[in-house]
Amino acid sequence: MDPSIITFFQVMMCGLLVGGLYALFSVGLNVIFGVMKIINFAHGEFLMLGGYLTYFLFMLANIDPLLSIPITMALLFLVGFLIEKSLIKPLAGGPPYSYILLTLGISIALQNIALILWTGNYRSVPVWYSALPLSIGPISVGLSLVVAFTVAVILTAILYVLLKRTTFGKSVRALSQNPELAQAMGINVSKMYTLTFCLGAMVAGVAGSLVAFTMYIFPNVGFEIAIKSFCIVILGGLGSFEGAIVGALLLGLAESFTSVYLPGGSGWAPVVFFAVLLITLVVKPQGLLGAKA
Amino acid sequence: MIYALRELRSKFKSGIKNPLFIFVILLALLPLALQEPYLLYVATLVLIYIVIAVSWNILAESGQFSLGHAAFFGIGAYTSTLLYKYFLVNPLLGMPFSALTSCALALLMGVICLPLREFYLAIATLALSEVLRTIVIMLPEITGGAVGLGIPPLFGGNRVLNYYLMLAIAVIALSTLYAVRRSKLYLALVTLRCDEVVASSIGINPVKYRLYAFLLSALFPGLCGGFFSFYVGFIDPFSVFNIEISIAPQIMSVLGGIYTFWGPIIGALIIEPVKEFLRISMPTGYLVVYGIIMILCIRFLPRGIMEALKAYTGMSEAVPVGGRKCSR
Amino acid sequence: MLEVKDVYKRFGGLEALKGVSFCVNKGELIGLIGPNGAGKTTLFNVISGILKPEKGIIKFKGIDIVGLKPYEIARLGIGRTFQLSRPLMDMTLLDNVVVACIYGGRKRVGLKEARSIALEKLRLVGLADKAHLTPKSLTLLERKILEISRALALDPELLLLDEPLSGLSPREIDMHVSLIKRIREDLGVTVIWIEHVMRAIMGAVDRVIVLHQGAKIAEGSPREVAKDSNVIKAYLGEEYAKG
After folding, report:
1. Using CB atoms, which residue from B115, B119, B291 is nearest to A109?
2. Could you report the per-residue pLDDT of A259-279, keeping only the tens digit for each?
3. A174-198 pLDDT per residue, tens
4. Going from the N-terminus, what domains does chain C have, and what CATH number goes with each?
5. Do C74 and B322 touch (CB under 8 A)?
6. Contacts of residue C104 in chain B, CB cutoff 8 Å?
7. Where exactly are the structural domains of chain A?
8. Which of A214, B222, B243, C25 is 20 to 30 A distant from A163 in Cα terms?
9. Where are the alpha helices (DSSP H) in chain B?
10. pTM of this prediction?
11. Partner B contacted by A186 (CB < 8 A)
């Protein structure tokens, strides 16, 4: 087969796989926005914390990242709970800019605390399947990436079912569409806000675990991914679960293709995200699958 | 527009109110007290941040929350630098051009952000700033790329002279923005922030005034940027397009009191020296102080120090634009 | 003064205004009534430029105003208030009115002149002593009055009032109605008034226009309209019985 075609599919594969990870992270961010109508600038830090947790559990206790996912979920749920209860909930009813600044502050604080505690060194979890390539015909991809993608897909699917089929999910959707009506129907808004936030934190934490053994963990990793994720959710449409997935896959592909095919590629990759973001905001601010504002 | 400018100029001539005048005098005397060059360096930085914070605040007054102010600083820095590098333009002449390019960028940003609100606007301004930074990095033949460019420092590196130059810039900036605060333009901006629909219904053109706000808030940071590269004798995209330059004015404004004139100034006076001090004693992760201050501020003192002061001195809730303080 | 011809406005699948036509003459005090969802506020939004109709002509003093931006229409001389009063919370009462003077007034004024004009408007409505407070400390009635005085600062020839009486006590209603009457009589401002409080509006206006589900179903003196079978049917007795 023509090597350039192989490269093309290789790049495409890589883009989709990474996109899957972005998708997992983005749907969490999206749900928080959909319900609480706030953008959590600190969401990336949940990923970062999950990543470091996974790293240290592996390094100190030799626990495989996949096995430590439940631990990560539980701890990140707790972290989310603490942050929401003590910092975010008291802000209710205030001016909108306060959420941006507060979560930005949390983000800066956590990134720098991580820097202080764990230095800026790049960490990675070297699992046995990291180095193994998986060959699908002439295309080979890292096995760890495929494993991570699979976990991401499973978890995203679980979330999907959770949001569309269960009572909890119905409450979440009711709350995002019509908060007053939802409250009138007896939904405990405050508790739902907390639960949603914790859910998002938990999912981000798992995304962090996945990043830990496929890419690198460092203090700013969460922030970088979070910024990409903002572009993703806006492209997909803030509030749309499917939109976040579509946006993630599309931007994952775009990032992958840009890195390889554009001269000086990896440098231009962040611009791709932002360029897409700006185009979306100008052309169709509600995003691909979003509801009209 | 011309009418507005004329009004502004008349306020400027009508005299500077006492507190600002005294403040400027104190700043002018500062170098006599601070003999050590490093302290003078910090003082110069403080002046820069004061200007950026007050400028950012003006944009916030119009309800537009920018996370991309570093772009104005950066483009100003590169303008004066490249004008010198390619056309041998004296930096003192180049600085006004910095202000110009900054304004041009502001117009572009403003137009892109016209339909956007709150979070969308914030992220769009951030995106624009980052895109600009990446463009600079990816054109090393022109801009020196990620490595940056070295340039001969202004006044041969004399810290005192540079301080006074920056002070001059700050005085111009602060007096202009102070005058703006007492003008009709300011009323329009605040109205836009409070309620855009009402603003339209009483004759305010939202597009015009949102763009004015962008222009006003970009002018002086651009000028500061133009000064900065020649102050440190070096320019690179990571220092002048640093996201910290976008975030710092917000923290300073919130700490000092958002939507006030002195708030950002107080915030800058407190935060910048603290940050520099921490940077020396704790080189890694000193920015954690930013985060902690932000969190504590928003949580416990959302309208900043100015509000606490007002409550303490028992002034009535609102100070009319005219500046007259009401007795209780 | 105001000519509305055949105005259509739809939101997606919903036709909010169907071929509404009427005229308002200078100096009239017109009531605009109709059950909830009739399209009254939509009509105001179309007239004041916030919404653009799909079809139709609206002429104000002979000028075609469809397609003009809200701030342009405000400057032409149409002022409005909103259903839920929207005072500018972070500004003093005086500044609330000053902005309107400066930006919406008929002639260009400087800050000083605008302040004295604004103070005058506040004095007219009885809020002058509270000029330096913010709307946070006002009662509901005072906020509504502020909203009216802000609209009056435009020196409007046409004033659109959207349910000014909602939420007021009976005594406040009487006070507010007399203010509205005064505006027409003393200032010569033409008024179109959306209202649900029937007893107040029916006794005060010259003419009534009734909207129902986007269409005009009746027009005439309060007495004629009150007897109109279409109107009674539209209200199914509930709103009407309140009046």
Report:
1. B291
2. 888 877 677 888 889 999 988
3. 888 877 788 888 778 888 889 999 9
4. 2-86+159-242 (3.40.50.300)
5. no
6. 202-204
7. 3-222
8. A214
9. 2-13, 18-33, 37-61, 70-87, 91-113, 118-137, 140-143, 159-181, 184-194, 196-201, 206-232, 237-240, 243-256, 262-281, 288-300, 304-313
10. 0.88
11. no
